[in-house]
Amino acid sequence: QVQLVESGGDLVQPGGSLRLSCAASGSTLANYAVAWFRQAPGKEREYVAGISNDRDLTYYADSVKGRFTIARDKPKNTVYLQMNSLKPEDTAVYSCNVLDYWGQGTQVTVSS
Q1: b or e along 45-75 (b: 16 or more beta carbons within 10 Å of the residue's beta carbon)?
Q2: 19-51, pLDDT tens digit by residue?
Q3: How far apart are the first and last CA of the chain?
Q4: How far apart, in whole angstroms, are the C-alpha atoms of residue 3 and residue 10?
């Protein structure tokens, strides 16, 4: 079983940056592919970024490509999502996912 805890969400101005963390317990994250999803009010949950368990290949939604970076910190058993050049449309609850496991999410609000 995998327990996931996200953190790092905040209120930030357009153009700003945030780094989200997905910390795991109960299992070693490096053994799994990990993905970040987000859900804005009234919208479907959407895929944001993922990292594979072999060779740490990374994948991004077109809407965040070039602005967001997903990366692992294996000693800390954590996956990060570095978000730069944030836009109001990035406002959402961001959650990490491993297999059928989800964290509780962290709120990101981009507003002036």
Answers
A1: eeebbbbeeeeeeeebeeebeeebbbebeee
A2: 999 999 999 999 999 999 999 999 999 999 999
A3: 40
A4: 22
| Polymer length in residues for the chain | 112
Cα–Cα separations (whole angstroms), residue 62 to 23, 32, 54, 65, 98? 25, 23, 22, 5, 21
Look at the alpha carbons of 48, 78, 13, 41 in this order and tell me if their dihedral is positive or negative: positive
Residue 78 pLDDT > 90 = yes
Contact 64, 70 (CB under 8 A): no
Please give the DSSP secondary-structure letter assigned to residue 72.
E
Of 49, 42, 41, whose CA–CA distance to 20 is shortest?
49
Q: By three-state DSSP, how is residue 111 classified? A: coil
Helices (H), 13-104: none
